Every structure is written in C-alpha cells, then in structure tokens.
Amino acid sequence: MRLRNKPWADDFMRENDHIVVQEPFEWKGKWNNQFNKPEQPLHLEIGSGKGQFIAGMGKQHPEINFIGIEIVKSVIVGALKKVKQAETDNVRLVNENAEDLREMFETNEVDHIYLNFSDPWPKNRHEKRRLTYHTFLDQYKEVLKPGGEITLKTDNKGFFEYSIVSFSQYGMILEDVSVDLHADEDPLNVPTEYEEKFSAKGQPIYRCKVKFTT
C-alpha cells in the first residue's frame, strides 16, 4: 500500500519538537536528559508505526521513559497525534532510520527494546534485513544494559520461528514465549494497530521476551 504524502508533516513535527526529537544523533549518551525524570529506565521501540503502542505504554507506565523510532514521515505524524492525545510527558519520537542503533545510543544506555510487527522479509535473500538477524542482535546487545530485555510481537509465524532460532543461536535466554498472546489474556498487553487488525481476523499473535547472557 502506497502511503499518502503529508506536506504538513515537517511543520507539525517542528511545532512539537518537545516530542519529536530534532537532531537525535546529538543525544547519544544523553537521552534521559530529554525527560522530566531522567533517572527512570529508558525503553526503545523500533518501528513505532502510528504510535498506539508507545502512546499506550507511556500512559500505562509513567515510571518509564520511552523512545519510538519510525522512519516514515507520513506515519510518525500519526504517532505524534496519539502521544499528544495521551497527554503524557514520558514519550519521545524519532523520525530516522535505525540501521545502526550504536550511532544513536551509547553502550548500555537502553533498558528494554520492543520489536513490534517488524517486516518479516520472508525471502531468503533478504535475511540480513530481518531485525532479529545476528548483526542487529549485535547492536541490541551493545546498547542494552546488562540484563536488558527484548520483547518481540508478530503475527508472522515464520518470522517468529526464525527469531526464536536466531535468539537461541546467539546464546540468548528465552524468558517468555506465547504462541497465542490474546488467548493468554495478558492484562498488561498494549496492542498495536496491526495487532488489533490481525487478531480481529482470528490470527494468533506471537510474543517472546529474551535476554542476552552476560
């Protein structure tokens, strides 16, 4: 599906630069200074989409600071609207490509990473683009604090199985695995827009939580 251009997006983001961080690479090692409570844990969502998850998490967890990265400008403005509607001050958004998180975050700067409904890149020749490929895991391990966690959610069974194998081969510890998240009825689960769409069609939602070994 082709995304519609939003010519007002740049102005809207600049008008809300207290939420959409300008020059994000300059904040490497200083991200918690973006927040009113810099001592709080820092959680990162890669691929925030229209922002339902990160806005909901920010509202549900005022004791945590959140950063959402989304490369598509016409999509992140939707996330910006949701964060504004949530009236929470612990969420920041970044309109950048997260190809190498080590350019944006210092070693051990992040407490938790969320990978929600990432592009599964199903063709074998695109394996290196999957966000659970080992080169991405190298990045996550460096920017996460010792004991930091990754939570992955997806509707794609093939990508989920690939990710479980990738995590295991990397020597990571599987903390929690669900092959039908909504059947488990986790009261703390905050759904994404995709999650609601796929679940409404009867598709199971897969989730796992993993940690790196020291």
Structure description:
- By secondary structure, the chain is α/β, with parallel strands linked by helices.
- It has helices at residues 9-15, 52-60, 73-86, 134-143, 157-169, 181-184, 193-200, and strands spanning 42-46, 65-69, 91-94, 110-116, 144-154, 173-178, 206-211.
- A 7-stranded mixed β-sheet has the order 3-2-1-4-5-7-6, with helices on both faces.
- The longest helix is centred in the middle third of the chain and has 14 residues, at 73-86.
Compact description:
The protein has seven helices and seven strands. The protein has 214 residues and is α/β, with parallel strands linked by helices.
Q: What descriptors fit this protein?
A:
7 strands; single chain; alpha/beta; 7-stranded mixed β-sheet; 214 residues
Q: Return residue spans where pLDDT drops below 50 for at least 5 consecutive residues.
A: none
How does the helix and strand content classify structurally?
A: alpha/beta
* Largest sheet: number of strands, sense, barrel closure: 7 strands, mixed
> How large is the count of helical segments?
7
Radius of gyration: 17 Å
Distance between the termini: 42 Å
Mean pLDDT, to the nearest integer, reads 94
- Please give the number of β-strands: 7
Shape: globular
Helix content estimate? 25-40%
**What percent strand?**
15-25%
Q: Give helix and strand order, one letter per element, not per position.
A: HEHEHEEHEHEHHE
Strand order of the biggest β-sheet: 3-2-1-4-5-7-6
